[in-house]
Specification:
mainly alpha; Tyrosine-type recombinase/integrase; DNA_brk_join_enz; Integrase-like_cat_sf
């Protein structure tokens, strides 16, 4: 993606307005084309990421920043303008390694309640 969008604010910029990001529909359509349409939506992937990162004891503020969530606590939002860029970088490297390990079958479901495999 670097050659395509490194000069832009968003990695996945909108085709109609490059100063804005794409919405979730292209990702959902891609999931449908991969035959996950009735099992998974893009927001579910974000929830999976958030849950997994929280279970690994990453800083919740860093996770929320990485997911581009706006803090619902008005006082905290007014005073905390941290971007956590270095911590986000470490989190994203960990997440990338985690996904790779899962794809290669190296992630254990031991200790998980009622694990479900989708196939």
């Amino acid at each position: 993606m670097k050659p395509i969008s490194s000069h832009r604010e968003y990695i996945f910029a909108s085709n109609k307005n490059p100063k804005s990001h794409v919405n979730s529909q292209p990702a959902n359509m891609a999931l449908k084309r991969m035959r996950f349409g009735r099992q998974l939506v893009s927001h579910g992937l974000r929830a999976l990421a958030s849950t997994t990162m929280n279970e690994q004891s990453f800083n919740p503020d860093v996770i929320e920043a990485a997911l581009a969530h706006v803090d619902r606590n008005d006082v905290k939002k007014a005073y905390n303008h941290a971007e956590y860029l270095e911590q986000q970088r470490k989190l994203m490297y960990w997440w990338s390694d985690h996904i790779t390990a899962a794809a290669e079958g190296h992630v254990s479901l031991a200790g998980k309640k009622n694990p479900k495999l989708v196939g």
